[in-house]
C-alpha cells in the first residue's frame, strides 16, 4: 500500500478523478504557482515536530530530484505532445545501479514550456507512463531562477569567477535569490505529494536545488535525504564572498549524505563549514562525518562514471561504422587530436588553440601531419561572455588555418554545429589523442567516453586497420582543474594556462612509443569499465542507506526559523534535563554531591570576561553553605587563579589543573596527587611548543604547574588544526618514555601527567563519603568538553556499586547536544545557571526564592 499522497497522484494517473476532491484542486496550484515566495514561508508546516506522516509502503522506493526530468518531448504538426526517455540523461542512467525491486520516481522540469490548460493532462501521462512528476515553473520565474541566480551567481562563483565588474556575473540580486527559493519550494511541494517519509529515499542533484533539503527536512524530520553536487565546490576564500553563504551551507547540512566528485571539492566544503559555521569533522573507518546538532552528516567522495553499455550499443550501429570509415578517409595519413567542449568561458578552447598554434610553429615537420578537430557544443548558458568566447574561437581558428593551412590540409577543424551522438563517437574512434584543457570543470566525462570508444569492437578495428589481436591504445592530455583528472593516473596532466606545457604535452602524446600508449590505455580502461554510472549510483545508495540507518532510533525535533531551520537528533536515552525533575530529587535527598566544570559551563565559551560574576559567586555560596551538600568546582585552570576568584566561597571545594590539586574548602590546604613523580618532561615539551607557536600566528602557550597547553583559538582554524596534529605527533614521539599523556581539546593540545584527570575528584569524593558512612543519594555533575567525560564515567560506573545509596539520583549533564557519557544535557551556560539557581533557592522560603530568581537575569551572567 502506498502513501495517501502518492495514491492521490495514482488516482489522477488512472483517471479516478472522483476520489481526488481536494488534492485535485491542490495539484495544479502547486504545479503552476508563480511569483516569489518568502524564504520564511512555511506553507503552514511550521509544526515540524509531529510532521512525519505514517506510511505502510513495503517496496523500497527512491525519489530522484533534478532540475530537468530525463524526458524528451516532441510536439507534432497537429500540436499533440509526445514523450520519450532521454537516454543521455544521467538521472535515467543511474537506474542501472538500483536494485531491481526498487521503484524510482522522478521529479523535475520539462524542457518545453507547457500551457496551463495542458498541465493536468501532461502530469497524468508522465506519471502513468514514466513515473515522472513534472514541476511547472512560469517562464518569468524560471528565467530569474535558472538564467539569473543559478547561471549568474552560483555557476560562475563555483567555477572561481568573482563578480568584480558587472560584466563578470553581475552584483548580487536579492530578487534572483528569492526566485531561487521559490523554485526550490515548488520542488519541495512536488516531493511532498509523492513521498512516504518513513520509507522513501530522496536523492537531490546539483546546485540548482541546494536549499531543497531544508524545505524537506522541515516537513519530514526523519526524511532519508541525499544530495550530490555535480559542479566544483570553491575554496572558502571564494565561497565566503557569497552573501547567502551560511544559508546554503546550513541547507546542505539538512541532508544525511552529501556527495562530491573529488576530495578537493569535499575539502573546500568542510573548510567552509569550519570557518563560517564553526563545525569540525572527523573520519571514522574511512567515512568523513560532520556532527550537526546530534545528526551525523556523511560526506561521500566518488566521481560519476559513464553508461558503458549505451556507448557500446552506439559503437555497434551501422551509422557509426559508416562515419568512422568516412573520417578515416578524410584524415588519411594524418594524426587527429580531438577536443570536445561546450562553448563557454571555462572550457579553455582558446588555450587549446593557442597551444596548437605554438606546436605548429615550433615543429614545422608536423604541418600537414597533425590536425586538431574541435567539436564545440552549444553553450548551456547565455550572455555576452558566450558570444565573446565564440568570436575569439572563430578568429583564432581562422588565423591558424590561414597561417599553416594549404590545399588539402586544414590544421584546425572547428565543428560548431550540433552533432548526433554516433557522429561524436566516430571522432573518438579515429582520434590519436583527446585534449581537455578546461580551466575549471566539475567532472567532465569526455575522457571516459574516449577511452571506451578507443577500445572499439571487431568491426571498427577492421575499418581502421587494426589486427584483431592488436592491443588498444589511447592518449589523454587533461587539465589539472577538472574533476576526472585524479582518477586518470595515466593521463598527461597540464596546467591549461601554461601554453608551453600544453604544447609539450601535445607533442609528447604524438611521439610516445606504442607500448606506452597501450599501457596508459589499459590502465584507464580498467578503471573506467569498473567505475561506471551504475557503480557510482549503487555506491551512493548504499552509503545513503547506511547514513540513515539510525533515523528510527533517534528522537528528532526541529528548531530555528526560515533557512536557519535544523533538526536536533538525540539518542533516546540522552535527554534534556528537566529543572523541575532535578529540583524534586534535590529536595528529597540528604547526602548530595555537586561537581561543576567552569570554562564553558559556568561561563560562556569564548567570553572576553572569564572571571565569575557576583551572581555566580552567590549561587555557589548558597549551594555550598547547605550542610547536606558537598560542592566542588573542578577546572583545568591553575590553583592560584581559582583561589583568587573564589576566595569568598568558604565552603566550596576546588579541583585545579584537572584534579591534580584538590582543596576541600577555604580553610584547608591544597593537596596534590600522588600519581606524579616529577616534571622534567617540561624541559622537553616546552621548546617544541615554542617552535609551533613561532610558526603559527595567533597561538599561545599556557604554562601550569603540572601541565603545558598549546592554544590556537585565535589562529587560522585550518592551519591551527593542521599544526595541532603535527604538534601532537611531535610531542608523542619526543615524550614516548615519559609518564605523560598528550591530548587534544577544543582548539588546544595539552601535555599533562598520566592518570591525572577530573575523574580523580569524583572518585575521591565518593570514597570519602563512603568511609564516613554517608552514602551519597544525589550526584549532579556538569561539564562541557572531553575532560569532563572522566567525571561522567566515574559517577555512572558507581551507580550500581556499594559506594552510593541504592536509591541514589544521578544527574550527569553536558552542555549542548553532542556525543557524551552523560545522560542529560542543557543547551547553554544560561540554562546551567538557571538550573543551579533553582537548586540553590529550592529550600529557601518562597519570598526569598522569588526575590533571588528575579535578581538573576541572563544578560548579567556573562
What overall form do the CA principal axes indicate?
elongated
- Overall mean pLDDT stands at 87
Instruction: Supply the number of helical segments.
Output: 30
Distance between the termini: 56 Å
Number of strands: 32
Structure class: alpha/beta
Percent helix, as a range, is 40-55%
- Summarize the main sheet: 9 strands, mixed
Low-confidence stretches: 1-58, 846-862
Radius of gyration: 33 Å
Kindly report the spatial arrangement of strands forming the biggest sheet: 5-4-1-6-7-8-11-10-9
Beta-strand share of residues: 15-25%
Can you put this structure into words, describing what you see?
The structure is a single chain. With 862 residues, the protein is α/β, with parallel strands linked by helices. Helix content is 41%, strand content 19%. It has 30 helices and 32 strands. The chain has a nine-stranded mixed sheet, sandwiched between helices. A nine-stranded mixed sheet has the order 20-32-31-30-21-22-23-24-25, with helices on both faces. Strands 14-13-12-15-16-17 form a six-stranded parallel sheet, with helices on both faces. β26 (700-703) and β27 (708-711) form a beta hairpin. α9 packs across α10 (263-277) and α15 (421-430) crosses α16.
Amino acid at each position: 500500500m502506498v502513501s495517501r499522497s502518492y495514491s492521490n497522484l495514482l488516482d489522477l494517473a488512472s483517471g479516478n478523478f472522483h476520489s481526488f476532491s481536494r488534492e485535485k484542486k491542490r495539484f495544479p496550484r502547486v504545479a503552476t504557482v508563480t511569483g516569489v515566495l518568502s524564504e520564511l514561508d512555511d506553507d503552514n508546516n511550521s509544526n515540524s515536530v509531529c510532521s512525519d506522516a505514517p506510511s505502510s509502503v513495503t517496496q523500497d522506493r527512491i525519489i530522484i530530484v533534478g532540475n530537468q526530468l530525463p524526458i524528451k518531448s516532441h510536439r507534432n504538426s497537429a500540436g499533440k505532445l509526445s514523450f520519450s526517455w532521454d537516454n543521455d540523461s544521467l538521472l535515467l542512467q543511474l537506474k542501472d545501479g538500483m536494485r531491481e525491486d526498487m521503484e524510482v520516481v522522478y521529479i523535475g522540469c520539462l524542457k518545453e514550456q507547457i500551457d496551463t490548460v495542458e498541465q493536468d493532462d501532461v502530469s497524468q501521462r508522465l506519471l502513468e507512463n514514466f513515473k515522472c512528476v513534472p514541476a511547472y515553473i512560469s517562464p518569468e520565474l524560471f528565467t530569474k531562477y535558472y538564467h539569473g541566480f543559478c547561471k549568474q551567481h552560483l555557476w560562475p562563483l563555483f567555477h572561481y569567477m568573482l563578480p568584480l565588474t558587472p560584466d563578470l556575473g553581475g552584483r548580487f540580486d536579492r530578487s534572483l535569490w528569492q526566485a531561487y527559493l521559490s523554485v526550490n519550494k515548488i520542488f519541495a511541494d512536488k516531493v511532498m505529494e509523492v513521498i512516504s517519509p518513513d520509507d522513501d529515499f530522496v536523492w537531490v542533484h546539483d546546485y540548482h536545488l541546494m536549499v531543497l533539503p531544508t524545505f524537506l527536512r522541515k516537513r519530514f524530520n526523519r526524511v532519508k535525504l541525499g544530495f550530490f553536487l555535480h559542479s566544483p565546490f570553491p575554496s572558502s576564500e571564494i565561497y565566503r564572498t557569497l552573501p547567502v553563504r551560511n544559508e546554503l551551507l546550513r541547507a546542505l547540512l539538512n541532508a544525511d549524505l552529501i556527495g562530491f566528485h573529488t576530495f578537493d571539492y569535499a575539502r573546500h566544503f568542510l573548510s567552509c563549514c569550519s570557518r563560517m559555521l564553526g563545525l569540525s569533522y572527523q573520519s571514522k573507518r574511512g567515512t568523513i562525518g560532520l556532527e550537526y546538532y546530534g545528526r551525523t552528516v556523511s560526506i561521500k567522495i566518488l566521481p560519476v562514471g559513464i553508461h558503458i553499455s549505451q556507448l557500446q550499443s552506439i559503437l555497434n550501429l551501422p551509422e557509426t561504422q559508416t562515419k568512422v570509415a568516412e573520417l578515416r578517409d578524410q584524415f588519411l595519413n594524418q594524426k587527429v587530436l580531438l577536443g570536445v567542449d561546450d562553448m563557454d568561458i571555462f572550457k579553455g578552447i582558446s588555450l587549446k588553440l593557442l597551444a596548437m598554434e605554438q606546436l605548429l610553429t615550433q615543429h614545422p615537420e608536423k604541418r600537414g601531419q597533425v590536425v586538431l578537430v574541435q567539436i564545440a557544443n552549444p553553450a548551456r548558458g547565455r550572455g555576452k561572455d558566450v558570444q565573446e568566447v565564440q568570436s575569439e574561437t572563430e578568429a583564432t581558428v581562422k588565423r591558424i588555418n590561414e597561417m599553416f593551412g594549404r590545399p588539402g590540409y586544414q590544421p584546425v577543424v572547428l565543428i560548431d554545429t550540433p552533432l548526433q551522438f554516433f557522429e561524436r563517437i566516430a571522432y573518438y574512434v579515429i582520434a590519436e589523442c583527446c585534449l581537455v584543457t578546461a580551466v575549471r570543470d566539475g567532472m567532465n566525462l569526455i575522457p571516459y567516453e574516449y577511452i571506451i570508444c578507443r577500445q572499439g569492437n571487431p568491426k571498427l578495428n577492421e575499418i581502421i586497420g587494426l589486427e584483431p589481436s592488436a592491443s588498444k591504445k589511447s592518449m589523454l592530455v587533461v587539465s589539472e582543474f577538472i574533476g576526472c583528472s585524479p582518477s586518470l593516473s595515466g593521463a598527461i596532466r597540464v596546467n591549461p594556462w601554461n601554453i608551453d606545457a600544453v604544447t609539450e604535452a601535445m607533442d609528447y602524446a604524438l611521439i610516445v612509443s606504442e607500448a606506452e600508449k597501450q599501457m596508459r590505455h589499459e590502465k584507464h580502461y580498467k578503471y573506467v569499465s569498473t567505475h561506471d554510472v551504475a557503480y557510482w549510483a549503487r555506491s551512493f545508495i548504499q552509503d545513503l542507506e547506511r547514513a540513515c540507518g539510525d533515523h528510527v532510533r533517534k528522537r528528532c525535533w526541529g528548531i530555528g526559523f526560515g533557512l536557519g531551520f535544523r533538526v536536533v537528533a538525540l539518542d533516546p536515552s540522552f535527554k534534556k534535563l528537566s529543572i523541575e525533575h532535578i529540583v524534586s530529587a534535590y529536595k528529597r535527598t540528604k547526602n548530595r554531591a555537586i561537581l561543576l566544570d567552569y570554562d564553558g559551563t559556568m561561563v560562556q565559551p569564548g567570553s572576553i570576561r572569564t572571571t565569575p560574576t557576583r551572581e555566580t559567586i552567590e549561587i555557589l555560596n548558597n549551594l555550598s553553605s547547605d550542610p547536606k551538600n558537598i560542592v566542588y568546582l573542578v577546572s583545568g585552570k591553575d590553583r592560584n587563579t581559582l583561589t583568587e576568584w573564589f576566595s569568598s566561597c568558604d565552603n566550596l571545594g576546588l579541583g585545579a589543573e584537572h584534579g591534580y590539586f584538590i582543596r576541600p574548602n577555604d580553610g584547608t590546604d591544597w593537596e596534590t596527587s600522588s600519581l606524579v613523580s616529577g616534571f622534567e618532561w617540561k624541559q622537553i615539551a616546552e621548546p617544541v611548543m615554542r617552535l609551533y607557536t613561532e610558526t603559527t600566528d595567533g597561538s599561545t602557550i599556557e604554562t601550569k604547574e603540572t601541565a603545558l597547553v598549546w592554544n590556537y583559538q585565535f589562529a587560522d582554524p585550518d592551519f591551527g588544526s593542521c599544526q595541532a596534529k603535527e604538534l601532537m605527533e611531535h610531542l608523542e614521539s619526543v615524550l614516548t618514555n615519559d609518564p605523560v599523556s598528550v591530548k587534544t581539546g577544543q582548539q588546544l593540545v595539552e601535555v599533562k601527567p598520566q592518570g591525572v584527570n577530573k575523574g580523580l575528584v569524583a572518585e575521591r569524593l565518593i570514597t570519602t563519603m563512603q568511609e564516613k558512612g554517608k552514602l551519597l543519594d544525589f550526584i549532579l555533575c556538569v561539564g562541557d568538553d572531553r575532560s569532563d567525560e572522566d567525571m561522567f564515567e566515574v559517577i555512572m560506573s558507581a551507580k550500581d556499586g556499594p559506594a552510593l545509596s541504592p536509591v541514589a539520583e544521578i544527574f550527569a549533564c553536558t552542555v549542548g547536544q553532542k556525543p557524551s557519557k552523560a545522560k542529560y544535557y542543557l543547551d547553554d551556560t544560561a540554562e546551567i545557571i538557571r538550573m543551579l539557581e533553582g537548586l540553590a533557592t529550592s529550600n529557601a522560603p518562597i519570598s526569598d526564592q522569588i526575590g533571588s530568581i528575579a535578581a538573576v537575569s541572563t544578560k548579567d551572567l556573562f
